[in-house]
Amino acid sequence: MNPRVAFKIDPRKDMRSLEAFAAQAPFDNGRSLRWAVLKKHPSLKRAFKNGAIVDRTHIERYIADAYRKDRVSAKRNMARYARDWRKKEKVFFAMTDALFGDFPWPKGAYAAYATIWGMFPRFLDDKTFQVPMKYRAARAIPVIVAHEMLHFRFYAYIEARSPRYRDPERNLLLWHISEIFNIIVINSPEWQKVFSSRNLPYPEHRAIIAALRKRYPHATSFDLDRLIRDIHPLAKKLMARPA
Asked: Facing residues of 112 across strands?
């Protein structure tokens, strides 16, 4: 059975996301924290020191104030996002079935939460993710939903077929593989006919994606296991680069 995505508003989810960005800071030199939080909300800089949270109270108040201020527009926007996704979900599930065959969707909450941050994280443990509370390009929301949903089925698939990826030491490698996979799939001509909004790759993935797109120009050319095998050594090379 295909999961049905619920669209929700809960400021507590943004605190969890911020904690995740801060926890990632030692491993990505603070990139996610800068991109997601500090660039968009510079007044929060004083709540951090070397990427670590030093004033949680200030952050919680900031988040609460932001949701209180935009509660009407947030409710309206999330309702629109839900309507727009419903128009795409049937064909999305058909396309993902073409990729994964009879491998089922993993169990989870499957909810999209509003966020004030500039990045939209996913949570593999409960199958939830975030979408922007306010977004100029609202028509691009369905492709954000598709991107995160694709991650949930991909992670479940690759960890079931290749248990070695469950090793926490492979988390970063698997993240690289999953992001590269998503861009190749969603930016294919067939998927773009449905979503008409492209996913932007992380800078370190651009060359790999350009090379693989020549081998996999169309969705009809996707052999899931072969594509994963082709991505793996290229993603592994990224791990060897100096920080």
From this structure: 7, 129
